[in-house]
Amino acid sequence: MSAVTTESAVPAPRRGSRGFAIWIAALVALIVLGFGVWIYQVVRGLQVTDMRDNVIWGLYIITFMFFVGLSAGGLIVASAGRLFGVDRFAPIVRLAIVEATVTIATAALLIIPDLGHVQHIYNLFIHAHWLSPMIWDVTVILIYLVLSLLYLWLYTRRDLAARGSWLALGTKDTGRAGRDRDHHLTYVLAWIALPAAVLVHSITAWIFGLQISRGFWYSAIMPPLFVSSALVSGLALVTILAFVVRRYGRISFADELGSFLGGLLAVFLAVEAFLVLCEVMAGYYPGIPTDAVHQLFTGRYAPGFAVEVVVGLVIPFILLAVAGWRRRPQIVVVAAVLALIGIFVHRANLIVIGLGKAPIPSPPGTPLGIPQANGSSFATSSVYFPTIWEFLIVIGIVALAALVLTLAVRYLPLRDEPDA
Q1: Phi, psi (rounded to 5 degrees) for 218
Q2: How far is CA 134 from CA 206, 250, 379, in A?
Q3: Which has the least CB within 10 A, 134, 303, 311, 409?
Q4: Contact (CB, 8 A) for 390 and 37
Q5: CATH for 17-411?
Q6: For residue range 167-225, what is the model confidence (pLDDT) as tens digits?
Q7: What would the DSSP string read from start to end of 134-169?
Q8: pLDDT tens across 213-264, in order?
Q9: What is the per-residue pLDDT for 16?
């Protein structure tokens, strides 16, 4: 068996280390700033954003979709490894579950600023329209969050009980019999978690793919495209976290696992590229490119599509397709970062291009609520770019996710070390 590289042997920082304290302080400052800006948005209303009656979704929903994908991809990796006996995943399964739990909770939190007022949260359930994919999405996300927490608890409760932690919730049997029982329960739960992870992102895709008035979205390819992008982004984030956490001694694995993860990510990137090609061909090949396809290739959003394809698909695939490069952890991490950027840009393209063309294409168009520069309160198309307030709120929420993830990685037992 290959030895663990020297990187995995780097000692964890001391509990009171200065670098750790600075990191936590910076995250807390960003959280406080984001919370303060959110209060400002609640007082002033969604008019402080660049969202209007035509562009009804913006940075909040773009980031929401991105985090749902991160969570689904992470839990798919963990559950698939457990179900199909991929033992090489064992060192990172707990980390993948932690990642999935934190990111799905973050996704749920991102819905709040998009609603505008806090009381609108109650309306989602009090006046739920159960034929709408939106309420399906909210419901399955909450169920998925509970499922992820249960999954994480089953994996860690014996080790927590051995430490005397209250998080073990009264677990008494910390011996082999108890571990074997929990091992069987995680296998049973994996049968639920894997389809749930696929379902949570498929329902998010149906929110878009079932809207007949939006030609760029109305497509049967949306669910498989969403699931494939979730696999790319989820595996990419787990890979990055695995190398970072290994560097601080919280987990250990041989470089062969990193190379395997890189190869698997290359496969997912190839599938993602194929589905993107199918989506574009359907709109371009008939000879009369749709407005959305025009925006992708030569319109105002063409640079974003170039980033999605070149930076997010082509370059990371090349980096990971060469076996020699894939054995170098630094290259695998760089490719994973580029893949994450590409998927985020893909989400942004989906929103801004899909909403850029009004459902009423003829003048006067869709009412915007406020007069524009030309004096009209209507528009047949719109251009969206987030305001500074939207950026700060999202940064605050992401900082909260990073804080929770940091504390979870630092204090939860991430090594799977059953009794001998």
Answers
A1: -70, 90
A2: 9, 38, 26
A3: 303
A4: no
A5: 1.20.1630.10
A6: 656 566 556 666 677 777 888 888 888 888 888 888 888 888 888 777 778 888 888 99
A7: HHHHHHHHHHHHHHHHHHHHHHHHHHHHHHT-GGGT
A8: 777 788 888 889 999 999 999 999 999 999 999 988 888 888 899 999 999 9
A9: 53
Mean pLDDT computed over 306-321: 95
Q: Where are the beta strands (DSSP E) in 357-401?
A: 366-367, 378-379
Q: DSSP letters along 20-47, please?
A: HHHHHHHHHHHHHHHHHHHHHHHHH-GG
Instruction: Tell me the β-bridge partners of 379.
Output: 366
Q: Read off the pTM.
A: 0.85
Report how far residue 246's alpha carbon sits from residue 250's, in angstroms, rounded to the nearest whole number: 6
For the record, the structure tokens of 418 come out as 């059953």
CA 52 to each of CA 55, 110, 218, 356, 386: distance values in angstroms, whole numbers, following the listed order: 5, 18, 22, 11, 11
* The two three-digit tokens of residue 251, written as one number: 């987990």
Burial of 226 by CB count in 10 Å (0-12 exposed, 13-18 middle, 19+ buried)? buried
Q: How far apart are CA 242 and CA 219, in angstroms?
A: 35
Are residues 52 and 420 in contact, defined by beta-carbon separation less than 8 angstroms? no
pLDDT at res. 29: 97
Nearest-angstrom CA–CA distance, 201 and 65: 8
For residue range 378-403, what is the model confidence (pLDDT) as tens digits?
Answer: 666 677 889 999 999 999 999 999 99
CA dihedral 341, 73, 224, 106 (to 10 degrees): -70
Q: What's the sign of the alpha-carbon dihedral 83, 84, 87, 90?
A: negative
Beta bridge partners of 367: 378
For the chain, give every domain's residue range.
17-411
The three-class DSSP label of residue 367 is strand
381 forms beta bridges with 357
End-to-end CA distance of the chain: 19
Question: ω into residue 364 within 30 of 0, thus cis?
Answer: yes
Tokens of 142: 């909450």
